[in-house]
Amino acid sequence: MTSRPVHRAWILRCRRAVERCARLFAVPAENPELIRSQSAALSTQIPLLYFILVTNSVALALTHLHSAPMWMTVWAPGALCGFCIVRLFWWRRIRNVEVDTATHLRRLRLTLRLVPVLGVLFTAWGFNLYQYGDAYAQAHVAFYMAITVIGCIFCLMHLRGAALMLAAIVILPFAVFFSLTGNLVFMLMAANLLLVWVAMIFVLLVHYRDFARLVESTVTLRLRQAETQRLSDENFRLANLDSLTGLPNRRAFLAHIDSMASAADSNSAIRPKGASPIVIGLIDLDDFKLVNDAYGHSTGDRVLAEVGRRLLDFSTNPVFFARLGGDEFGMLLRENLSTDELMARGRVLCRLLQQPYELGDLTLRLTASVGFAASDGPVERPELLFEQADHALYYAKQNARGEPVIFSHTHESERRRMGLIEQALAHADLEHELTVAFQPIVELPNHRILGFEALARWTHERLGEVPPAEFIACAERSNRILVVSEVLLKKALAEARRWPDDTWVSFNLSARDIGSPEATQRIADIVLASGVPPHRIEMEITETALVSDFDLASESLRLLKQLGVRIALDDFGTGFSSLTYVHRLPLDKIKIDRSFVSDIVHNATGQSVVKSIVDLCRNLDLDCVVEGAEDEEQVRILHELGCRKMQGYLFGKPMAGDAACALLSRETIQAA
């Protein structure tokens, strides 16, 4: 019973030994990199192998030319050497040809089959020559077989199986053959070659092992480098990607501008005249902040993600889009477009972003403004082109919402003037240069003056009289508006102290005035120190003043409301979300924007809008004032629509404080 397990174990050990031997002589097909490396090494060494065979065989044939038959010295070696020469040139031809792993594997296996065949043929030829010639010729045969097999084995070091088979086919028969000659020299030579063969086998196995390990370590290193490069590329991609929209971010956008500017400069010599190598477009969603205020930031993020998707769908090869931050996006055009073509492209983009945003049960509508700036030559300062596009965008948001605007020479003049105004504001003596004008607000039907709106005026020693629309905008952008508001409010309240107790003053606050608790507190301190009862003071705010941070602005207005100051929402109706503010702010009054009045005589839609606002104010118990009344026909229609309080040139243009006091005095005398 015990013999069977022992027998099975012995069989198993024999089988494993056979499998190990088979692996020694096989080409490892499971390692593609090792196969390619073996093939690459052999493509250099195999030609040397054939060179050794040919040169050594020709030398041996010449030694026996007169002592051996012709078929042994000419035809047999000629056929063998001819085959070797053909294979030599074949290997030389394919050495630098790129092929797949399967082709490399076929080459190795073919070599593995050819080596034993050639080994048998050349060995048999050598043994057959031994019987011809003298002792020197016989010694040449022994030398030929020994030196040739050693050289060929070294040429096959990277194909272990072929080298082992060649050694076994040549050296073992060599040792047996020459040991049986009875010649002591040949017998010692056979023993010596056998020992060298053992050493060569050891060297061969160690070399192949180290070669395989080197290939494996190279592959591992390459994989690590590839992974490192992949991680580096991924980090670079993430560092230049906006995760919300999937678009490149501001960093990538600015880098792309620089690279395009460099490319445009390098191609400036061949650029056609009038071409625009770079066009920068800045896109801004109008009133997007109101979406966050009304529906929350998660809804705003979904809108931005949808904008990113639309821009990616719109993007073509010459167009590069990026999200610059918030609701502002950038685009770069690498096309030569005329002004009309660029405007057409911008309108298509604006219409795309104006399409309804379907967010589950919620549908939102937004508009987008676009500002373009195109270079007309080498771009020495890409940041200047960016500033021009930003100015065009600012102009679009102020004057052409939902439309594209291209930066022009007119805009350049405006931009320079804005720069001059900003510089002048920074060094102006605002206490002496700023003044306040007052425009009356009246009540129909007797045109009784209820109060005045305080309007800013600035006269500079070099710039002269600067329009309020210009210097107020500059002051807001440069943060000088806080000082401007404080100076103007003090002067307006100083004039209001001279008026009758039932006449109020209306003052416009900017976004920055209600954008921080500190700024609002300064406004409150001025009101308390003025000596004018707070109920005679009215603070006007516009929708744009609420956009940056509605919650903070609302809290600031409530602080002023607690003092007794009245709050009015100015320019009502110009924004799609004005109704959002009516029930969320501590309002006392709504002022209907003058844009509804300018063509109200012939515009039935405008009349309907005004009537709706008047009814809204009546239902919410809010005062309602209409701005922009300039002729009797407008006043008649407004009166028929229910408007009782109005403001406009028909009732009085902005005037100095003394003129306002004089007007109030005349009204008082007439009333008496």
Task: Explain briefly what this protein structure is.
With 672 residues, the chain is of the alpha/beta class. Helix content is 61%, strand content 14%. It folds into three domains: 15-219, no CATH class; 250-407, 2-Layer Sandwich (Alpha-Beta Plaits), CATH 3.30.70; 420-667, TIM Barrel, CATH 3.20.20.
How does this model look, in words?
It is built from 23 helices and 16 strands. By secondary structure, the chain is α/β, with parallel strands linked by helices. It folds into three domains: 205 residues, no CATH class; 158 residues, Reverse transcriptase/Diguanylate cyclase domain (Alpha-Beta Plaits), CATH 3.30.70; 248 residues, Alpha-Beta Barrel (TIM Barrel). An eight-stranded mixed β-barrel has the order 8-9-11-12-13-14-15-16, surrounded by five helices. Strands 2-3-1-6-7 form a five-stranded mixed beta sheet, sandwiched between helices. The protein has a two-stranded antiparallel sheet with strand order 4-5. Helix 3 runs antiparallel to helix 4, helix 9 crosses helix 10 and helix 13 packs across helix 15. The longest helix has 56 residues.
